[in-house]
């Protein structure tokens, strides 16, 4: 089993140029409550910071957008698996 490296959230914020206020707002919406993130969560924090700082989305809007993004990625994964299954059935 491969262990994914967990990254300290403060390290990610420094890299993104984000502030404590950004993190406090997101945590107020129930996001990024852990002090350590896996790579997927670090990417979500990057996206959240961009939405807030460049698009003016509030933390509640970020929560909704990230939820929808997760659902979309899950559906895309399921669709790819289904397409692969159908492709194998056509060949067999």
Keywords:
92 residues, 2 strands, Multidrug-efflux Transporter Regulator, Chain: A, Domain 2, elongated, mainly alpha
Strand content: under 5%
Given as residue ranges, the uncertain stretches (5+ residues, pLDDT < 50) are none
Radius of gyration, rounded?
Answer: 17 Å
Query: How do the strands of the widest beta sheet line up side by side?
Result: 1-2
What is the gist of this entry?
By secondary structure, this protein is mainly α. It is 73% helix and 4% strand. The protein has one domain: Orthogonal Bundle (Multidrug-efflux Transporter Regulator, Chain: A, Domain 2), CATH 1.10.1660.
Structure in words:
By secondary structure, this protein is mainly alpha-helical. The chain has one domain: Multidrug-efflux Transporter Regulator, Chain: A, Domain 2 (Orthogonal Bundle), CATH 1.10.1660. 73% of the residues lie in helices and 4% in strands. It is built from 4 helices and 2 strands; from the N terminus they run E-H-H-E-H-H. The protein has helices at 9-16, 20-28, 39-55, 59-91, and strands at residues 7-8, 36-37. It has a two-stranded antiparallel ribbon. Helix 1 (9-16) packs parallel to helix 3. The longest helix is centred in the last third of the chain and has 33 residues, at 59-91. It is elongated and about 55 Å long.
């Amino acid at each position: 089993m491969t262990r994914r490296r967990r990254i300290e959230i403060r390290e990610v914020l420094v890299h993104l140029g984000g502030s404590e206020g950004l993190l406090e707002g997101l945590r107020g919406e129930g996001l990024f409550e852990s002090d350590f993130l896996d790579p997927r969560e670090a990417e979500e924090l990057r996206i959240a910071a961009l939405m807030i700082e460049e698009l003016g989305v509030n933390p509640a809007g970020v929560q909704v957008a990230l939820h929808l993004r997760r659902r979309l990625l899950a559906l895309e994964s399921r669709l790819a698996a289904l397409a692969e299954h159908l492709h194998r059935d056509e060949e067999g």
